[in-house]
Amino acid sequence: MSSRARLLALATAVLACNAYTNEITDLAYVHFGGSDSVFFSAPDTVLLGETFQVSVRTYGGGCTREGSTRVTTQGQDALVEPFDITDRADVCTLVLREFTHRAAVRFDVRGNAVVRVRGRARTDTGRDTLALRSRAVLVK
Question: Which pTM does this prediction carry?
Answer without folding.
Answer: 0.80
